[in-house]
Amino acid sequence: MALVAQTNLQFILEVAIFIQIAVMLLLNIIPFSLSLVLFLALILGVGLTLLFGADALFLFLPGMTHHEFTHPYGSLAILAIITLLAALPMMQQVGIKVRNLKGFTILMAIIITVVGGLMHRSFLLLWFLGLVIGLFIISKSFRQKSIFTIKRMILGITVVLAGFGSLELLSRLLSMPILSPLLRLERIETNALASVELVIKNTTLFGHVPTSSYWGASDPGSSSGYISLPINMIMLFGLPFPVFFGILVTKKDVIDYMLPGIFGYAYDFGYVVMILLLAWCVFVMYVGFKILAAYREKREKGNRNYLGREALLIGSLTAFISQAVVGLFLMNRSINGTALLTFMFLSALVVAHVLVVKRD
């Protein structure tokens, strides 16, 4: 059948289209009031806080296996927290006291910072970038005074450096290299150059030189499994794609772990797909900011029907931008596997607002 995906790339595109249509229908069928968005963001925030906390706890318990949930779901934590923070000034404008909710949101953010940082250092980059972008968008949307003064920026950088330093010290005191930020940098320094050379020398317009991949002569020359949806999804549908499963997972680290996403997507799908992906990200961000401006105009004219959607858009746009920047330019793993599903969902959550605005 024509609709049955024949490659990893086709499967990714089909799932992306399905998610986009589903989210667009959902956003137009369900009346996303401010109270409903607030409730969903609280549920998501609390759930991810508990999930990340349990995962971090498993690091210190013998015999327990950690899962690094911050990779696939880190941007969803940004979605939850920024959506809550965006809802606060809206509630204040209608006379609702937000002191307790604000305190609870900040507490969740602190816990996520600590447990997420223990779990994976790359999460901290995503997390702090998301908070900065989110707070900036909120300040512009509500015409607030900018929170980014020189003093606060210096303080923020100091906190980040202190956090990484504390993790390194903790890793040495507990003899747990997995906590060390320097170990990650050393691995990249040792292996990244060879990975970059592999990509540059073997990438073509629509894939790569077949013999350059792990699969050797049997490689199809594109969609070789370095970039894919979760393996469980592929196996569930019985799709005959090349996948790195079991002990073979480490074999794709040469692309997935050591390189930014622009290299990974270029190598597995070709330069054309990489350029189209970058163009799509720019399009999503442009659409998001245009719709956000439309929502702000409606709110300032006294229309409160879109408050929930505006808060949701601020959160989803922030999460999308953060994941796109980290995944495409820092670490491919942040937009691969389950994280790729999250990325599709956030993209759909932004673009879905197009119909909402045009319908009015």
Instruction: Note poorly predicted spans.
Output: none
Helix fraction, binned, reads over 70%
Instruction: Determine the number of helices (DSSP H or I, runs of at least 4 residues).
Output: 14
Number of domains: 1
Transmembrane segments: 12-30, 37-61, 73-91, 103-119, 125-142, 154-179, 229-249, 269-289, 310-331, 337-357
Keywords: Membrane, Transmembrane, Transmembrane helix
Description:
The chain is an all-alpha fold. The chain has one domain. It is about 70% helix and about 0% strand. The protein contains 14 helices and two strands; from the N terminus they run αααααααββααααααα. It has a two-stranded antiparallel ribbon. Strand 1 (about 205) and strand 2 (about 205-210) form a beta hairpin. Helix 4 (about 100-120) runs antiparallel to helix 5. The chain is globular. The two termini are about 40 Å apart. The model has no long low-confidence stretch (mean pLDDT about 85).
Entry summary:
Helices cover about 70% and strands about 0% of the residues. It has about 350 residues and is mainly α.
